[in-house]
Amino acid sequence: MTDRPKAYTVHGTCVAIAGAGVLIRGAPGAGKSDLALRLIEDGARLVADDQVRLKFDDGRIKASAPANIAGMIEVNGVGLVRLDDDSIVGEATLALVVDLVEPDEIERLPERVAETVLGVKILLLAVAPFEASAPAKLRLAAGRGPGSIMPGSKSEVS
């Protein structure tokens, strides 16, 4: 029997890329919402901005938004914006955790690493959010999570 919590809320932003939940973490002002907005403009869907609810459910981690902020994203210089229904999703299975870092902190050929979230190993990636390639990097990495059909994917993070 385990004493791990079944759910908790984290500071971050979560989008679904082709159904794969991507949790973006970073300090306030680091570029979480900006990166999410660029991903949404290219077809991703917003799960939650600023606060992300993580819940253990049947061996997977489900991400969702607290009810009071569901469907909204903070756009720097514009304000709090409610997105249309086609740009949001109520819940996504977490496949990737992204930590936002400065460009000089990125390893050229990083080892594949994971973070344990509510007892489940989730692929972890460091990304510089304002690089032009950041959205493409997240789309590639999200496709290599559990259950991916992309070449070179692993069914589990080691």
Summarize the entry for a quick read:
The protein has helices at residues 32-41, 134-142; strands at 7-17, 20-25, 45-57, 60-64, 72-75, 79-82, 91-100, 113-117, 120-127. It is mainly beta.
Structure description:
With 158 residues, this protein is mostly beta strands. The chain has a single domain (7-142), classed as 3-Layer(aba) Sandwich (Rossmann fold). The protein has helices spanning 32-41, 134-142; strands at residues 7-17, 20-25, 45-57, 60-64, 72-75, 79-82, 91-100, 113-117, 120-127. The strands form 2 sheets. A 5-stranded mixed β-barrel has the order 1-2-7-4-3. Strand 8 (113-117) and strand 9 (120-127) form a beta hairpin. It is globular and about 40 Å long.
Provide keyphrases for this structure:
158 residues; mainly beta; Rossmann fold; 5-stranded mixed barrel; two-stranded antiparallel ribbon; 9 strands; 12% helix; 42% strand; disordered C terminus
Q: Which CATH class is shown? A: Alpha Beta
Give me the secondary-structure category.
mainly beta
Please, how many helices?
Answer: 2
Main β-sheet, in a few words? 5 strands, mixed, barrel
Q: Average the pLDDT over all residues and give the rounded result.
A: 89
Q: Span from first to last CA?
A: 24 Å
Question: What is the helix content?
Answer: 10-25%
Number of strands: 9
CATH superfamily: P-loop containing nucleotide triphosphate hydrolases
The main sheet orders its strands as: 1-2-7-4-3
Q: How much strand content do the residues show? A: 35-45%
Order of helices and strands, N to C? EEHEEEEEEEH
Shape field: globular
How many discrete structural domains? Answer: 1
List low-confidence stretches.
Answer: 145-158
Radius of gyration (Å)? 15 Å
CATH architecture: 3-Layer(aba) Sandwich
Query: CATH topology, which one?
Result: Rossmann fold
